[in-house]
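#onboarding

Welcome to the new folks! Below is a worked example of what a typical request in this channel looks like: someone posts a single protein sequence, and someone else replies with the predicted structure as tokens. Don't worry about understanding the tokens yet, we'll cover that in week two.

Example request:
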Amino acid sequence: MRAKIIIITFLIGIFSVMNAQENVDRNEMVGFACYFAGQPSKTVEKYTQKLYNQNYKWISKRLKSKNNAEKYMSVIILERLTEVKKYKLNETELNLISEIKNSDELVSVCSGCTYFEKVSLKEFLADDKKLFAKNWLDRNIKM
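Example response:
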């Protein structure tokens, strides 16, 4: 009987994780430590490489992307680069960032094995949510 309860609990857990993953768009996903292995999402990997190569113009151009994960990553990176005086935002960029920060468009988010969700850019870019990206930003953009 105990074995049946354990198996049922295990299966419910697997089905709930699979169901949660169905609601997100893997092509528009932001995650710094996703799945069992704690891997970054493809978008985060791409931005890590662009940041490493100091390709800031490429990052800036993605403020106009149709991909909401790219918009999110561009905003957090350009703001941090500006904060540490490695980049100066122009008026167009400031306006685009403001629009993105007030956007109700959805972005897929993952963390660990079980957290998969879609949230608005406005919510995800709120000050209390910036902790989600803080460690990654600290590691990749030195003060």
